[in-house]
Design brief:
Number of domains: 1
Oligomer: single chain
Helix content: 10-25%
Distance between the termini: 52 Å
Strand content: 15-25%
Number of helices: 2
Shape: globular
């Protein structure tokens, strides 16, 4: 039978809690080369027809511009929030602007959606980020 000394067990438990806290505090996107990208490094976009906290990109639009998916229990902060979409799913927003990827972007760094139809724009970090 393996016996783990209590001080070592306490240390391991504390490290695990610290890691869980970091995972929960992680933001849903990151800044790379002056733009917001998802966890895979894919460019994120905003849509001019959206209202703060509300996505207007549904159905075929959402097929071509997949939302940055959130979970119902995801926790935002001052910069990040979640919104419930028309289909009941959840999406991340940055300063209230819903975020999307673009189906034609094939690899990290692609920005083929920039300026599409005059209403799609690469998401950029807020000043000071």
């Amino acid at each position: 039978m393996l016996r783990i000394p209590p001080p070592l067990l306490a240390l391991a438990g504390g490290a695990l809690l610290a890691l869980l806290g970091q995972a929960q505090a992680a933001e849903p996107a990151m800044v790379k080369d002056g733009m917001l990208v998802d966890a895979r490094g894919m460019t994120l976009y905003t849509y001019d027809k959206d209202s703060p906290g509300q996505s207007m990109c549904n159905d075929t639009c959402a097929t071509n511009w997949p939302p940055l998916v959130a979970t119902a229990d995801a926790q935002g902060n001052d910069d990040w929030s979640t919104l419930q979409r028309a289909d009941g799913s959840w999406q991340w927003a940055y300063y209230g602007k819903p975020l999307y990827t673009f189906i034609q972007d094939q690899k990290p760094g692609d920005m083929l959606g920039e300026g599409k139809m005059g209403v799609w724009h690469v998401a950029r970090p807020a000043a000071g980020q």
